[in-house]
Amino acid sequence: MYIRRQFLELIGNTSEIPQSFQVKSAKKCTIYNEHDLAYLDLISGFCVANIGHSHPKVIEAIEQQAGLYLHSNVYGEHVHSIQFRLAELICQLLPSRFNCLYYLSSGSEAIDASIKLARKATGRSEIITCRNAYHGSTLGAESLRSDTVERAAFRPLIPGIKFIEANDEQDLMYITDKTAAVITEVVQAEAGVVSLSHEYLSKLRTKCDQHKCLLIFDEIQTGFGRTGSLFAFQKSDVIPDILIIGKALGAGLPLSALVGNRELIYQFSQRPSLGYISTFGGNALCCAAALAGLKVLLEEDLIQRCNESAQLFVRQLVHSSIQEVRAEGLLIAVDFKSSKTVWSLILDLYQSKILAESFLFSHGSLRISPPLIISKDEISKASVVLLDLLDRSHSS
Q1: Which of 87, 147, 148, 375 is surrounded by the most beta carbons within 10 Å?
Q2: Which residues of the chain form CATH 3.90.1150.10?
Q3: Dihedral over alpha carbons 41, 42, 44, 49 (to 10 degrees)
Q4: How far is CA 98 from CA 90, 262, 281, 386, in A?
Q5: Bridge partners of 357?
Q6: Sequence-ordered alpha helix ranges (H) in the chain
Q7: Interatomic CA distance for residues 141 and 110, integer angstroms
Q8: Could you say which architecture CATH assigns to the domain 57-299?
Q9: 3-state secondary structure at position 184
Q10: Could you tell me which residues come within 8 angstroms of residue 258 by beta carbon, excluding any fewer than 6 positions away?
């Protein structure tokens, strides 16, 4: 009780009734509380722990780097071999136009940096983004959020933001010669796993080319195997000018990046120089964890495993109470069309020692996004418990 009270008194909370789940340790797909009770993790830190918790190769890489040094200037001034070894591997896995990374610490910071870079590169200020998208919580990222009630308390936000409907080709008319960039998710995570169609993305790319504005894909949540490919955009032939990555990139440590063409990224270095500075972006310890984590993802074939696991979930999650299951790999929305049902399920699953969550903009959907290493037995366990809870709710 003392620790819980200290948490409530000393740590800034983000809701009036925080969950207050006390973590003692975590391994693979399991998080242990202060009493060493095991909870199956179907959240993975909101798509951070893609390779599972405390992978031994990541821990080893962190320990090796910690034995050398923890920090020095990281924003493109001091040379850190671990930075360019990670950048080299990422660029090898992407289309050839991606040959340069700019490291940052968080997804929100990367979104803000992309806005600055787009304005600098084009000389324009207008940013277009999709409704029901979530890009972060800094003031710049909050400005890209379309729900007026939630962002009202933080006004005035940055000007020059226009909203369009995802997958609505008619709305592409709002992209003009005044537009600096279109920033969009390829799969809208917080909207409840809403995918942008290949046809729409292709027409979006064409429209951006016509007006010489940048196309920026936010793959902070969907990157590193989460949707069944390394990045969601790779399922189509549409290539953005800037790719924003984060969350799973750091394999549990804070790291994000802008990935793009060297000429574009170098806009930060001139007129003015130091156009963006991130004190901890590209921290050596974080890059060491990221490199080890990416190698694990590839060597253990977790992307293929993700697809197989997603199919197993979809096959098992069949019930009269479930309206729809939307899955992009192991980013899954189980839709009930009722926020009351979802919150009741989250609490009941918690009592059954399973951690699940909801979505920001799809209140009637249950979020399932476990580590990609989740086993068939763990999937069956989660599915059986969920269906049993629905049966009991249905009969009461």
Answers
A1: 87
A2: 2-54+301-395
A3: 80
A4: 9, 8, 19, 42
A5: 367
A6: 2-10, 44-47, 56-66, 81-92, 107-122, 139-142, 148-151, 198-210, 262-265, 284-299, 302-316, 339-351, 376-395
A7: 9
A8: 3-Layer(aba) Sandwich (3.40)
A9: strand
A10: 101, 102, 104, 110, 113, 114, 117, 242, 243, 244, 265
DSSP string covering 274-314 = SSS--SSTT-HHHHHHHHHHHHHHHHTTHHHHHHHHHHHHH
Amino acid at 48: V
Tokens read off for 361 = 């903009």
Convert the pLDDT of each residue in 334-370 to its tens digit: 999 899 999 999 999 999 999 999 999 999 999 999 9
Cα–Cα distance, 265 to 324 (Å, whole number): 41
219-232: burial string, b at 16+ Cβ within 10 Å, e else: bbbbbbbbbbbbbb
Higher pLDDT, 274 or 184: 184
Residues of the chain with CATH 3.40.640.10: 57-299
pLDDT in the model for residue 290: 98
Residue 319: both structure tokens together: 């019930």
Residue in this structure with the two tokens 């590209």, named with its chain if needed: 282
Rg (CA), the chain: 21
How much of the chain is helix, strand and coil, in % rounded to 5?
Answer: 40, 20, 40
End-to-end CA distance of the chain: 34
Give yes or no for a contact between 353 and 37, defined as CB atoms under 8 angstroms apart.
yes
Q: What distances in angstroms separate CA 73 from CA 78, 269, 290, one per listed residue?
A: 6, 15, 18
Read off the pLDDT of residues 204-262 as tens digits, 9 standing for 90 and up. Answer: 999 999 999 999 999 999 999 999 999 999 999 899 999 999 999 999 999 999 999 99
Q: What angle do CA 137, 232, 265 make, to 5 degrees?
A: 65
Q: What is the dihedral of CA 249, 372, 369, 129, to 10 degrees?
A: 40
Q: Name the CATH superfamily housing domain 2-54+301-395.
A: Aspartate Aminotransferase, domain 1 (3.90.1150.10)
CA dist 308 and 214 (Å) reads 35
